[in-house]
Amino acid sequence: MRERWEVQGRTGNIFVVSLSVADLVVAVYPYPLILSAIFHNGWTMGNVHCQISGFLMGLSVIGSIFNITAIAINRYCYICHSLRYDKLFNLKNTCCYLCVTWILTVVAIVPNFFVGSLQYDPRIYSCTFAQTVSTSYTITVVVVHFIVPLSIVTFCYLRIWILVIQVKHRVRQDCKQKLRAADIRNFLTMFVVFVLFAVCWGPLNFIGLAVSINPSKVQPHIPEWLFVLSYFMAYFNSCLNAVIYGLLNQNFRKEYKRILLTLRTPRMLFIDVSKGGTEGMKSKPSPAVTNNNQAEIHL
């Protein structure tokens, strides 16, 4: 039973790592170029870098929402359909789902090169998706890249909340579902990540949708400060996930603390590695750990 929980944790964490990679993409290339544009008060890197920056920005944004959707589906299957989870999300299938997630992300970005919607916007000093190039394409982007994924995530988390309430209050007399405390914490962490993503990216997407529906009437009435604020709210979202992990997940807090201590005293890294290696050779799995003393809670 213990091995089963470990396998389930690994497969679920694959999508969390993938989401972290999507958040880091913007820090590697687009953000340094944006800082350069701010310092020079304009884009000086040429069109090729502009297109690459816009592509990676889209890769990060769409990759984030698609990975958040994959995480929600994974959590839904894990909590609401636990008997089928091992078959649906074994390691091989999970890797396939991950590949499909990133393939769909790339496919979603490619049309921008044909539409010509990746352009430099001096208001935000970055090359990004231009909402006014094609109204029909902007509507499609908002629906496919934002509304549909968030609808799927909302459904999954709503079903999880319903099950948690049923288990807690024993609404169903035949309900034998058991939820571990760690499961609830992980679910709450990813739920907060989803809510913050929706809050940070919602204004920009709704502005784009409103402008694309009626450009001549809506666009002149949108203040520039509101547009800039919505963009920087969206950019700021990439920095929030790591903070949320640290605030809500004890394992992340421990790792953050260890990393900070390692940066202060690098020799501690080698001490931890050597200590872990010696303890690993000495320690053996305890036979006392059974299904009866697993850290479970009955809500």
From TrEMBL:
<feature type="transmembrane region" description="Helical">
    <location>
        <begin position="135"/>
        <end position="165"/>
    </location>
</feature>
<protein>
    <submittedName>
        <fullName>G protein-coupled receptor 50</fullName>
    </submittedName>
</protein>
<dbReference type="GO" id="GO:0045820">
    <property type="term" value="P:negative regulation of glycolytic process"/>
</dbReference>
<feature type="compositionally biased region" description="Polar residues">
    <location>
        <begin position="288"/>
        <end position="299"/>
    </location>
</feature>
<feature type="transmembrane region" description="Helical">
    <location>
        <begin position="12"/>
        <end position="32"/>
    </location>
</feature>
<keyword id="KW-1133">Transmembrane helix</keyword>
<dbReference type="InterPro" id="IPR000025">
    <property type="entry name" value="Melatonin_rcpt"/>
</dbReference>
<feature type="transmembrane region" description="Helical">
    <location>
        <begin position="52"/>
        <end position="73"/>
    </location>
</feature>
<dbReference type="InterPro" id="IPR002279">
    <property type="entry name" value="Mel_rcpt_1C"/>
</dbReference>
<feature type="region of interest" description="Disordered">
    <location>
        <begin position="278"/>
        <end position="299"/>
    </location>
</feature>
<dbReference type="GO" id="GO:0008502">
    <property type="term" value="F:melatonin receptor activity"/>
</dbReference>
<dbReference type="GO" id="GO:1904408">
    <property type="term" value="F:melatonin binding"/>
</dbReference>
<keyword id="KW-0807">Transducer</keyword>
<dbReference type="GO" id="GO:0046325">
    <property type="term" value="P:negative regulation of D-glucose import"/>
</dbReference>
<feature type="domain" description="G-protein coupled receptors family 1 profile">
    <location>
        <begin position="1"/>
        <end position="245"/>
    </location>
</feature>
<feature type="transmembrane region" description="Helical">
    <location>
        <begin position="94"/>
        <end position="115"/>
    </location>
</feature>
<dbReference type="InterPro" id="IPR000276">
    <property type="entry name" value="GPCR_Rhodpsn"/>
</dbReference>
<keyword id="KW-0812">Transmembrane</keyword>
<keyword id="KW-1003">Cell membrane</keyword>
<feature type="transmembrane region" description="Helical">
    <location>
        <begin position="186"/>
        <end position="213"/>
    </location>
</feature>
<dbReference type="Pfam" id="PF00001">
    <property type="entry name" value="7tm_1"/>
</dbReference>
<keyword id="KW-0472">Membrane</keyword>
<comment type="similarity">
    <text>Belongs to the G-protein coupled receptor 1 family.</text>
</comment>
<keyword id="KW-1015">Disulfide bond</keyword>
<keyword id="KW-0297">G-protein coupled receptor</keyword>
<dbReference type="InterPro" id="IPR017452">
    <property type="entry name" value="GPCR_Rhodpsn_7TM"/>
</dbReference>
<keyword id="KW-0675">Receptor</keyword>
<comment type="function">
    <text>High affinity receptor for melatonin. The activity of this receptor is mediated by pertussis toxin sensitive G proteins that inhibits adenylate cyclase activity.</text>
</comment>
<feature type="transmembrane region" description="Helical">
    <location>
        <begin position="225"/>
        <end position="248"/>
    </location>
</feature>
<dbReference type="GO" id="GO:0005886">
    <property type="term" value="C:plasma membrane"/>
</dbReference>
